[in-house]
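Submission checklist for the structure archive. All mandatory fields must be present; incomplete records are returned to the submitter.

[x] Identifier: ABC-2 type transport system permease protein
[x] Organism: Kineothrix alysoides
[x] Residue count: 529
[x] Sequence attached
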Amino acid sequence: MRSIYGFGRYFRFLLRRERAMSAVWIVCVAGSALLFAGMYPGLFPDKESMLTMATTMNTPAMVALMGPVYGLESMTTAVIMAQECLIWFVMAVAIMNIFFVNRHTRVDEELGRHEMLRALPVGRLTGAVTTLFGAFALNAVISIITALGFMMLHIEGVTAAGAFSYSLSMGVQGFLFAALTLLAAQLFSTSRGVTGSVFALLGLFYTMRMSGDMAGNALSIISPLGLGLRVYAFYEDNFVPILILLLEAVVTGTAALLICAGRDLGEGILPARKGREHASRFLRGELGLAWRLSRGTIFAWGLGLFALGASYGSVLGQIDAFVNDNEMIQKILNTVGSYDITNNYIVLILAIGAILSSVPVMLLAGRIHAEEKHGRLEQLFAKAVPRMKMFLAYITLALLESFLSLFLLTLGLFTAAWSTGAVELGPLLKAGFAYLPALWVMLSLSVLLVGAFPRLTALVWVVFSYSFLMMYFGRLFDLPEWVHKLSPFGNVPQLPVQEFRLEPLIVMAALSLILGAIGVVRYGRRDIG
């Protein structure tokens, strides 16, 4: 027990630090889950509309996005809701846990906070155990609130068992990613290495689930994201996957604690790569330094976006065959008229990929603020390094990344779908690059916040979250057009389904230029730190 001495006081300290951030996550995750669930009775008022939606979800594109369809013989509103929403809320909870654990482990070590806390009467493992327990408590609170909220909504098909199978699947997968992040914090010596590795693992698990669900093999069950969907919430309410995932989390967390007990503070088990004895000539400039510090982010996101495009492109050839064999889908398409399912699938994938492509752009634009918070800019600007040129170097990289991200996304989609003959590279690149002005708006918002409102830099992620929610749920809930256009991505012409319109792209490009210029000027005038 000496290794976790002071656990109670440390946990109260963690609660004090997390009271605002955790409250925001609880409200956002649980509140969003209940808000969307409450809309479903109006969307699907009868069995016919439910069966139509369920059959639509059984297309390869939708199975790749959300997982396998179940309960067709006894479809209810709750089953439809669970199949459409669970995977996305699991992803949100996983991201929450990654940031939570990394913030209280590797980030605190980098900033020297753990060294100060270790000087107090606390055990060697107190910090790690408290963080893991805090993540467990946070997931438990979200799961309980979500389950109780479902039971109060009076949605057709909602039962206590279904509500808890849904919410516990969400919570236990979040706890598993908390344990994985704690393990990564023992392996890597930097916070970027921790988040990068766990996010890569999250992407790998999603790809495994998607491939396994499409092929109908065990690869999906090996992935925690696929196994968690096998609870079949509000239908079978199978709690076995939840127990398996909980066991995986306990084993992973135990392994992380065992490693933590034997490693040096501030170090990782995996040794950092030794650099050159003398720096290259390229590091003499601001752009070279920015590239050197950011190249890992650029490479990782480039590879991930190419893999994402290739994953979705690989199922493109199966869509038409599915429609030809499905009378229900044929009836749906005949009521719509000249509906091209392949092109609409491409539009959906490019919209998802474009929103995700804005992440590395925003990270690069905000990188200088991260260096500022860590106290490294004072040492840099003490030399003959103009702060404006350093900021512009990161902005230049972010601009180049906007082109690179969309190019690799569309190239991955084309490479995997080329054999089907359903797509051509030229039109596909045109459709992908149409999202460039939207990415520039996200970039300029990051620049504006870093330059003028450095304490509010997290607001850009609110815009990102809103854009993703509108892309996925906006059409589903038939929200007004102006609600979609509040997101920069909602103003992009959806090629090749819609006609190309240059006006909104020019407006967004001009807006991004103005916001970016204001941010750069304000950054040059404000105090550092």
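[x] Structure attached
Curator remark: The chain has two domains: 1-38+85-270, 299-529. Residues 325-338 have pLDDT under 50 and may be disordered.
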